[in-house]
Amino acid sequence: MKKLFGLWLFFLVLYLALYLAPDATPNFAFHYNLGRDIGYYGILTLGAGILIISGGIDLSIGSVVGLTATLFPIILLRFGEAHPLSPVSAILVILLLGAAIGWTHGMLITKLRLQPFVVTLCGLFIYRGLARWISEEKVQGLGNQFGPLKDLLYAQPFGYLPKFLIIFLILAVILGIFLHRTIYGRYLFAIGGNERAARYAGIAVDRYKILAYMICSTLAAFAGILFIMQHNSALPSNTGSFYELYAIAAAVLGGCSLRGGEGTIVGMALGTAIIWLLDRLTLLLGIRSELLPTVVGAFLLAGTVLEGIWQRWQSSSHQD
Amino acid sequence: MTSSPSPQPATHHVPLLEAVGISKSFPGVQALSQVSLRLYPGEILAVVGENGAGKSTLMKILAGILQPDQGQIFLEGKPVQFRNVHDAQRHGIALIHQELNLVPNLDIASNIFLGREPCGWPPLCWLCREIYTLAANYAQQLGIRAPLTTLVKDLPLGQQQLVEIAKALASASRILIMDEPTSSLTQRESERLFAIIRQLSDQGVSIIYISHRLREVELIANRVLVLRDGRQVGELQRGQITHEDMVRLMVGRELRQFYHRHFAPSARDKILVTVRDLRLHAQQRNPISFDIYHGEIVGLAGLMGSGRTRLVQTLFGLSPKFSGKVYLHGQEVEISSPADAIQAGIYLIPEDRKQFGLILNDTVCHNISLPSLRELSRYTLVRSRQERTLASQLVQQLSIRTPGLQQMVGLLSGGNQQKTVLAKWLARQPRWLLLDEPTRGIDIYAKSEIYALVDSLAQQGVAILMVSSELEEILGLCDRVLVMHQGELVGELDRSHLSEEAIMQLATGGKHLS
Q1: Domains of chain A by residue range
Q2: A320 pLDDT exceeds 50?
């Protein structure tokens, strides 16, 4: 709870700092774009965060985004010529692909007892290579077709809110209930907190770990589709690069411990928001945008240091 | 059982180590107030007290890990100050922690000299073969028989403990502080350790010995210092050291009935558990068969590594069995996972609660409800009011001392942690309870509470199979004892034939004493 309070405070301070910037006062378009970016990256953070809570890690998120963003137009346009496919079924195919990728990761990690870091690192290379091979290194997009689909998922604001933010909020509520209110969520926390104790309590540990990987990769695949909705062009060699690191960073900043067993959905949302506020703040304060990764990294480090100090202080007050 | 401890060393006028008026507080807790301690050369001083009495804090201060708020430490009459562990080591004081601090992938010699390797000229610092000759001395002194190039992970636990002692001896030769050194050793390994402690003491090494096992203290200590709530409440000289006196000082009153047990022979009419022809693995020569009656407590004795833990884990579905059948009330139950066992009402309290029993950074409430979540939920949503009601009921029933249901389990004392593990299973009606070292490393008061609890479960008709390395506990509680030796069930002793000698005879591979 104290952690969440700190995050809210952080978020507010950063937001107010926007108004102190010498140049532009943030207007509607500014807020709209900020909300869209928070929504988009927030979807990835949810997947990464839930996985981290269960004690896992996924380095392949960005490559899955790249692969699915490339594959979605190919399915709709190139394969669509021979076997016309409705956009809905194309989306389902992509989501199933994501789920299958997550299932494979989970099976390798639980049944063969491989290290999650290694398995998903291999995934990072494999899916990126596949994306480039399938697309023959060509930029993929939907051109000016499928207007209604783009309108539905991206273009038309809902009220004043960007679609991505809406989608993110819906997912956050669903996954929030899943994580914090259902027994499955509780099992994920238990597994991340102490996998062996969870096994001794009769929980089917492998099943739930696999589920966490599937959630993470499916959300990444969904984000791949959304990428095409927004940009209408995916560069196979580049699209989605480093997204996994932003997702993991946002989850960690939002209070997920890489040791597992700790974290909240609200924290993940705030973590994402803080990272994108930092992005805008660097821009407004006239700090060169090349420095953005440095700023994010420094912030994350500062947060970690603060948490470390806090924990040491806490544990010293509980010693025998 | 073993020879009596070496007599009190001749009176020395100047103590080797003296601590005067040591006080230490942590935010919210006065851990130590005005504690003094004297240690003479070659003396074995035991420090006893319940959990939270301040033993560990005092030892950490003597070893330089913590600094006192008040008080002074003297070494051979001269005031000294230990700013850190190295300071203390330089003065010849080393602390051996309860948990082993060895690097599993390094060999024995490298572990003994870790951080203090005699090496070639800096900055090159190549490693010398010299450590093996140097380590050989310690190995010989302590009876480490394995080649010094053996990786520590390949050693049995008892030998690892000896490596830890060798490491401490190599860093500090005058005063060894041992914190619960026997908590993971078997009787036989413990006895070997006592012999080594006595031998070190004869060589002039002073030893401060901390243990919950008062029998050991009786056996080995020259003098006992008793702490309670951070204060010194008494000192017992050799000859006055008795179990009763230590307990009296520790808890501040007589603990009248340590073992609560209502032996009820009439209960032996209905068989609850039947295990038939169980083979844990293909190599097992003699299949295991036994019955447990309603309300019966059956002990499972044996040396460390004799297969006791493997047996209860197999019965709980954690490790696959090779063959055999388990019946409850005459009905066969197929157990291939803990979920199956739990379904049948068979629950395991594992031997290491921190590793297997609890999610330390989660709350008391969540830990208690974990295996019962399905029953506490509707449409997979956890009904948190029911969950809290259940948890608070059990906290009350087991008198778990916690500031609240939302307290992190890791912050509770050992005894209360263990009660939380029990609470987890008492939330569901147990039929057969498997207890693996249920009182390891918890204080005497909590022990007696757990014994009372186990007894009351037995009275309710629950069948109990209890693994324990503390023979005293087995003698005090069990109706019957099964003994294992090298993975085989080698004998069964009725209450009328129970004695430490009889159990040890079987556990060490001897024949039945009749």
Answers
A1: 28-286
A2: no
